[in-house]
Design a protein that fits this description.
Radius of gyration: 17 Å
Distance between the termini: 30 Å
Number of helices: 7
Strand content: 15-25%
CATH superfamily: NADH Oxidase
Order of helices and strands: HHEHEEEHEHEHH
Helix content: 25-40%
Number of domains: 1
CATH topology: NADH Oxidase
């Protein structure tokens, strides 16, 4: 069986249209996320999707200059977790891993819905938490910028190259080994 198309098609595109996304579509993204596995079925993820123009503007005001392209997006989703929400064994904390699996399911569904979805780290997390009323005790892992494919004419040159260039991934032998560790896995 080949790799599923949502995984192959998913890229961090930036040419996003401002066209609104139907509520049912946004709900399906969250429904896909909750199918992810978690230790003891703890489901240590929370997704807060923002479409209200005033709240979305507040979130967008926290973005770093490199994320200028996200200003057109009709939706953004905050991915939140807390280490206490899941299993902790010694120094192994599972909540971020499990939230990551749920986030990938969310993204795969977005691609299946014909959306572009781009996880970002370039924002002021404390300001976003304040805007979304997320308690200080919780961890805001990422923002997912969501929209339909749009016009790329406003993208900067380096982003245009990324948008239309070949998908760059590490060779499999740099990230995958069989039976035991191999030093080629080191960065």
């Amino acid at each position: 069986m080949p790799i599923l198309s949502p995984f192959l098609e998913r890229r961090a595109y930036r040419a996003i249209d401002s066209k609104p996304i139907d509520e049912e579509v946004l709900t399906r993204l969250a429904e896909a996320a909750v199918t992810a596995p978690s230790a003891n079925n703890s489901q240590p993820w929370r997704f807060i999707t923002v479409t209200d123009p005033a709240v979305l503007a507040e979130v967008k005001s926290t973005l770093t200059p490199g994320n200028y392209w996200a200003q057109k997006a009709p939706a953004a989703t905050a991915v939140v977790t807390n280490n206490d929400w899941s299993l902790v064994i010694g120094n192994r904390v599972f909540a971020p891993f499990e939230a990551g699996m749920a986030t990938m399911a969310y993204q795969a569904q977005a691609v299946s819905e014909g959306l572009y979805i781009h996880p970002i780290a370039g924002f002021n997390a404390d300001a976003v938490k304040e805007a979304l009323k997320i308690p200080a005790s919780e961890t805001l892992l990422t923002l997912l910028i969501i929209g339909y494919p749009g016009d790329d004419s406003n993208l900067k040159e380096h982003h245009l190259k990324s948008e239309h260039g070949a998908r760059v991934r590490l060779p499999l032998e740099k990230v995958y080994a069989k039976d035991r560790w191999n030093d080629r896995l080191l960065p």
